[in-house]
Amino acid sequence: MTQENQVSLEKITSLSKRRGFVYPTSEIYGGLTSSYDYGPLGAELLRNIRNLWWREMITCREDMIGIDSQILLHPETWVASGHVSAFNDPLVEDKVTHKRYRADHLIESWLEKNPQDEEVVVAGMGLTEIADFIEKHKVKTPDGNDVFPPKAFNIMFQTSIGVVEGEKMPVYLRGETAQGIFTNFSNILNSTRVQLPFGVGQIGKSFRNEITTGQFIFRTLEFEQAEIEYFFDPEKTDWHELFQDWQSQMWNFIHGTLGIREDKLRWRRHSDQERSFYSKETYDLEYEFPFGFKELWGIAYRTDYDLKQHMDHSGKDLRYRDPNDPSRVFIPHVIEPAVGVNRILMMALCDAYWEDIANNRIVMRFKPNLAPYKAAVFPLVKNKPEIVGKAREVFHMLAKKMGTNWDDRGNIGKRYFYQDEIGTPFGITIDYQTLEDDTVTVRDRDTMKQDDTVTVRDRDTMKQERVPIHDLADKLLGIIEE
Ligand code: ATP
């Protein structure tokens, strides 16, 4: 079945709100810039993404462990990591409306409309280069106005600990989860039996005072990251090979595990100019969002930069002693794959969206393991206690094993329409035939009879088949876990 790309940001935003994936936050007060809440379906989808990531990256690997560090870390952490001095975005202000923009994004939009013969690499441009470019090409804001000269804007959120004015300690909401892994490096070595090479993963909220707005949940002030620091001995492990292994892992997770279309994915290598000074290699796995190919998941070889910085700033020894050669004591190197969980969710929404024109329906074709609900259970009619009772039994049997939705509103057609729009792969109807099967059966087992059958309707093909209730959960789980 082909899936044409008819998706636009407006369609995704409106479906998300209409069906309860994503709501603008604090909407009754007029909302808050670049901030969103997740409704019932969004919450399930986020949880599925986290669980699949954790299972594949941590649980199923011998060489990985997970931690859960704080959002508030000691402020020196962020001085050591370089975030306090260098976690900056180039900010420009509209001279008339005083709206603020990311200068690099204004230049990128200008370049899309005014393609140049020679490639212009915007990422990594310094403030002077940005100012020169804006001046030379008369780059304007979307309102058509000039801008004031660009300034560096630090995107760390600051708050404070303590109650007495004047004695409060300034701290930061973490700008990435990774630093909590580095600051725990020696705790991890001392409390577990890991040996190089090994990785540490973590999922949690990060905060950035982002300037840019308007791309739905692509870039928000508060978001969730799933980050890995993979530590290795640079003398024993070839970093090129390790880097490629991780690239394959990332691709397999997005395409294989989450079922995202391969033609919507591509790798982009950071140029020398764009790459951070401490990184020897950086790639972005990009997805083609409705506004073009954009970073989904970054991977960087950060050498021993972070551990070295924390050693210098804390005065603590964060070196690793080779168990096979105790005279060898060194700072491990790391490769860091870092992804945003909300950005994966946004990709999943864009990739699943399908307008099935022939059948006049919208279908969210999530791979079943990703779908918020795997099954929906419908009693054919509401006024037949035997049918409703049997349907409830089926609901409770399935709900213990998979996300299941109960729906007895309206007619079956409307229920299918709704479940297609929220991406439920299987619609299960308990009808008169279920009861008939019930009466002819001879083998009782608990309250279910072995030969009871229900109708299972497939979301994508709309085909229906009768399945014995006692096979139902295993059959569905078999497909979901494929
Ligand atoms: P950009 O340059 O686009 O601001 P970045 O390269 O600084 O992003 P990283 O620090 O590498 O991003 O963060 C790792 C991942 O976290 C990104 O690939 C993205 O999926 C996610 N991410 C980063 N910032 C945000 C944000 N503001 N909102 C949602 N997800 C984000």
Short description:
The protein is an alpha+beta fold and 482 residues long.
Q: Your description of this structure?
A:
This protein has 482 residues and is α+β, with helices and mostly antiparallel strands. It folds into three domains: 250 residues, BirA Bifunctional Protein, domain 2 (2-Layer Sandwich), CATH 3.30.930; 67 residues, Herpes Virus-1 (2-Layer Sandwich); 108 residues, Rossmann fold, CATH 3.40.50. It has 15 helices and 25 strands. It has a seven-stranded mixed sheet with strand order 3-9-10-16-13-12-11. It has a five-stranded mixed sheet with strand order 20-19-21-24-25, sandwiched between helices. The longest helix has 20 residues. It starts with 8 loop residues before the first helix and ends with a helix. About 1% of the residues have low confidence. The structure holds adenosine-5'-triphosphate (ATP). The site of adenosine-5'-triphosphate (ATP) has 16 residues, from strand 10, strand 13, strand 16 and helix 11.
